[in-house]
Amino acid sequence: MEKSTQIKFETPDQGEETARADLYGLLAALFYTPPSPELLQTLRSSAVTGEGVLGQAWTDMVNMANQLDAQTISDEYAQLFIGTGKPEILLYGSYYLSGFLMEKPLAVLRSDLQQLGLQRADQVMETEDHIASLCEVMRYLIASEDILQANLGTQKQFFSTHLQSWAGDLCGTIIVHPQARFYAALAQLTKTFLEVEAQSFDME
């Protein structure tokens, strides 16, 4: 997505909104491509905490990052999400919402992105309904200085329409896949985080 920035890791005192934006950014990076050695090292050295369901999910992912080397994680990504022919697991919202790729949910998403002034960058090969792209949009909506975009109403609408409606099913598929290790942990973190987000939006 255009208007994106490089993913940054902030200290805990930066505030809840920065933490939300950073986690969405991290999920976007990890679902889009296998982690670089630098990103993997950052994950391995991250502080862990078992407090709460989200803290436990984070700890489990960090622990898995410490158990596997970069090549093993890269191979797992290729096996699950690339493969030969049709991937074993598709990462696109249209598939989960309609049963097919490039269907009406993608057209609705593109219309909503246009209203937000966002569009896919030329170098991005994946369609806008890829889980990584949607997480990046959420990161942008939280971090944007545009008050018309960086408000809870806009975030909630985009989240409920384009993420909450299918991402849990994707995460469940990854979690139970017999070859998923790092990405099972990532999927559990994603599922837990999105559940926390949904609860928070419902309380507003």
From TrEMBL:
Which keywords has UniProt assigned to this entry? Chaperone
Q: Note the InterPro entries from the entry.
A: DMSO/NO3_reduct_chaperone, TorD-like_sf, TorD/DmsD_chaperones
Is Zinc a UniProt keyword of this protein? no
Show the Pfam families listed in the entry: Nitrate_red_del (PF02613)
The record, for Gene3D superfamilies, names: TorD-like
Q: Which domain of life is it from?
A: Bacteria
Is Chaperone one of the keywords UniProt gives this record?
A: yes
Q: Which SUPFAM superfamilies match?
A: TorD-like (SSF89155)
Q: What is this protein called?
A: Molecular chaperone
- Origin species, per record, is Undibacterium oligocarboniphilum
